[in-house]
Amino acid sequence: QNAAQKLKPIVPIKFHISSRTDAGVHALCNAAHIDIQRPPGKPPFQEKELIYSLNYHLKPEPICILKAHRVAESFHARFSALSRTYVYRLLVGCSHHSEIPVFERDLCWAPRGGYLDVPAMQDGAQFLLGTHDFSTFRSHNSDTPFQSPIRTMFQIDIQPSSGFLSHHYEDRGLEFWELQFRSRSFLYRQVRRMVGTLVAVGQGKLKPHHVKELLEKKDARALPPNAMAPPSGLFLKSVEY
């Protein structure tokens, strides 16, 4: 928003972002919309011109504009979204957090124990697919009393992945896994609580059918203690329109 103000619009600019995330969560991609009114006689910004200008003023920040598109006045970055996709990165094989590769720090979660039963996690994830009351899997915040807990999970995948430069330390026996979630929208901390529960299944602390039982309780207090994944492994991957 500050960068856009440096483009000298005649009306103050407000960014409307598709999604908010917790502190410590990352975004591979996010979407926003803005209205820019230029002084009389100045032509509208061309898309590439807008990208270059905003990125010039964003130089000090760990963010950049990837694309820009002209949209209809009825478009809204948040309310027009058809779905959002999040990826959570897990690192398996570390017996202590000090073993996390330096380039992966704050970009993944290495649960204690060093082993996960991924097929059990995949079985547990099946219970979360579809339309449910996800009250058990949300934290409380100021929006909670006004938000419906009903959400539809379109997709949950658990797939092997690769780490940054991981081919250089193959001998360490580390494994990366990605949990991908797609829904039209998510409740506050829903993904982190679902990941934490599935990791508990992978560690043998819960059985896959316990995921269904937790879902049916519709009570955030039913989630086991410490069953929320840290923010560092979570990435907003994309917003679909």
Helix count equals 5
Radius of gyration in whole Å, from Cα? 21 Å
Briefly, what CATH class of the largest domain? Alpha Beta
- Spatially, the strands of the biggest sheet line up as 2-8-4-7-6-5
Give the class from helix and strand content and strand pairing. Answer: alpha+beta
- The CATH H-level superfamily of the largest domain is Pseudouridine synthase I, catalytic domain, C-terminal subdomain
Instruction: Compute the average pLDDT.
Output: 92
Shape: globular
Separation, N- and C-terminal Cα atoms: 22 Å
Helix content: 10-25%
Please state the second-level CATH architecture of the largest domain.
2-Layer Sandwich
Count of spatially separate domains: 2
**What's the CATH topology name of the largest domain?**
Alpha-Beta Plaits
**H/E series, N to C?**
HEEEHEHEEEHHE
**Would you identify the regions where 5 or more consecutive residues have pLDDT less than 50?**
none
Strand content: 15-25%
Report the count of strand segments: 8
EC number: 5.4.99.12
Protein name: tRNA pseudouridine synthase
Domain Pseudouridine synthase I TruA alpha/beta: 125-241
Binding site for substrate: 86
Describe, in plain words, how this protein is organized in 3D:
The strands form two sheets. A six-stranded mixed β-sheet has the order 2-8-4-7-6-5. Strands 1-3 form a two-stranded antiparallel sheet. The two termini are 22 Å apart. The radius of gyration is 21 Å and the shape is globular. Helices cover 20% and strands 20% of the residues. The chain has helices at residues 2-5, 47-57, 118-126, 190-202, 208-217; strands spanning 16-17, 26-27, 32-33, 83-92, 130-133, 150-161, 175-183, 234-240. The protein folds into two domains: 1-58, no CATH class; 83-240, Alpha-Beta Plaits, CATH 3.30.70. By secondary structure, the protein is of the alpha+beta class. The model has no long low-confidence stretch (mean pLDDT 92). The chain is built from five helices and eight strands, in the order H-E-E-E-H-E-H-E-E-E-H-H-E. Belongs to the tRNA pseudouridine synthase TruA family. It catalyses: uridine(38/39/40) in tRNA = pseudouridine(38/39/40) in tRNA.
